[in-house]
Amino acid sequence: MNQWIERYIYAVVKRLPESMKKEVSEELRANISDMLSDKPTDDEIEAVLKKLGSPRVLANNYRGKDRYVVSPLYYDDYINVLRIVFIIFAVFSVVFGAIDAVISLDSSNLFEMIFEVFGSVISGLFEGLFQAFAIVTIIFWIISYVSQKSTCDEWKVKDLPEIPKASSAKIGRTGSVVGLIFGVTFSVIWVAILMRYLDYFGIYNNGTYLAPIFNQNVTDMFIPYYIASAIFVLIVSLLKIYYAEWRLEVTIPYTAYQILSAILAMVFVTHPDLIHPDLFSWIATSVETTVPEVVNGFTQGMKGFAIFIAIVTGLDIMGTWYKTFKGSKAK
Amino acid sequence: MDESILVNMIVELRRGTQIISVLSQLEKNQYGYSLLQSLDGKGVKMEAGTLYPLLRRLESQGLLSSEWDTTESRPRKYYVLSQEGKQILKQLKEEWKEIVREMNSLIVEDK
Question: What is the separation of C-alpha B30 from the centre of its chain, rounded to a whole number of angstroms?
Fold first, then answer.
């Protein structure tokens, strides 16, 4: 018997349950030989096998019933549940990844630290998403399997879902999750810098340390506020993800967070002792001017920056409230 | 118009007639390929890859009985309607006539 025929038969029966294999290969062999002349050429054999179609399709026809991991009937539910579980797992793994990174920080330099935090967050995220995918898929697999066995598709009119209120103030969940990941990660990195790696913010010349940038007494004072701000951004992001639209439950905490973090940033950059005096004198010597002039210029610049922060925050808050009211009116 | 829509609809429409076509030709013994040819001779096109699995399924449902003939140089599996298969075919034929009558009343244009 020609090897192509045997290989074709094998390709079909390997996809079938054990109990069918022997019978189906005998049947196929008989049917194929009927379709061929007594001394078939290779071309003839190929034509007949092509006529029978792809082994995968033929095996599927023999098997009779469709098989799937998630039943088409449950596919939409599967995708929706997967989306929500992904979001929950993403949030938890980012938060725990960040906490874990901070607890076990052991790198000696700033860049390693940043990579460590990012690495921990990203690997935690992937691990979490894979777990979420596996768990949801297995559960739906079981549901599909069980529902296939039982033929009852009873339902009650009472079980029909309520029609959701239309809203023009939707907050995209993907955007919120991305915002959460970056918000938390950068907050953690910033706090870690203030706590442990401040020395790296300094002026170096050929590897020798000339002057620090920040005055540590001042930055230490800000650490608790930045930690509070990190927690606040986490809570606000979770609210945004949970409600997924601009409504008072989200807009009020969001506004509070925006105002407080703007004030924190403004107080921080305009603090008179934020910058180490050594830096000012170093700048003064290198640009050949007096220290008070450098301080004055810096203070002016920071005032401008603070005003800029205030304006941007104000515009953002205004826009958010506009969306909130427009959304609530649309109902 | 998208040709593939029409093609798919025709395939779907014809799929329902496969079982009755096959059963109708098995009053007397036939093996897979001879059945394919006798259907073909009457203008009914069926893919070999569809027919062979279908024969197996009808057999497992008890509508066909089969027997291997190994006396010839080529072993062949012969199928024939079982008692139950004959019953079913009779009822399917009735149903088919009913369908034709209904369809005619729907689609034959009024004169």
Answer: 13
